[in-house]
Amino acid sequence: MEKKLEQRTCDILKVVFYGPESTGKTTLAQMLAAHFETEWVPEFSRDYLQQKWDEEQKACAPEDILPIAHGQMELENQKAAEANRVLFCDTNLLETVVYSQAYYEGHCDPGLLKHALKAHYDLYFLMYIDIPWVKDDLRDRPFERELMFEKFKKPLDDYNKPYHILEGNFQERFETAVKMIEELLKKNEVGL
């Protein structure tokens, strides 16, 4: 079962959009993938949980966490094989860990945590909460945005993950991200 959580190695850059709900992760992943003419990895849990909501009117439960993680890593591994120089991930296993801990009294499957920490990303864009929260069927914490931001930031600091906080409107975030990714690509091409 843990095999489904393994990230395949590849020689492209991996950039992940990470952070609380309704902070623009999907929008920026799509924009940057189009700009750099490459692939992006959708957030598996959105479709999985929307289907559950539509069919049963039920929210995420602890037993959903591992199927979500398996689906996310399967999508990431598939898209990594198709990507051109850089892959943009709209979430990753570490995000699933944070949500599991935040919603289920600090609990997270040990195998999920192990693989989340083992997975390699060249850069995390931690999305700040300075854009408006947008309601949908799955989002439920409009008044806990600051608390959730800190819950996402903590593991990046604790595990020394390379990250940059993206702030401002979408255009400002996009321009900052483009510059940083171009720098990473240059370093990667010269082998620094």
From TrEMBL:
Domain NadR/Ttd14 AAA: 14-173
Top-level division of the source organism's lineage: Bacteria
InterPro entries in UniProt: NAD_biosynth-regulator (IPR052735), NadR/Ttd14_AAA_dom (IPR038727), P-loop_NTPase (IPR027417)
Protein name from the UniProt record: AAA family ATPase
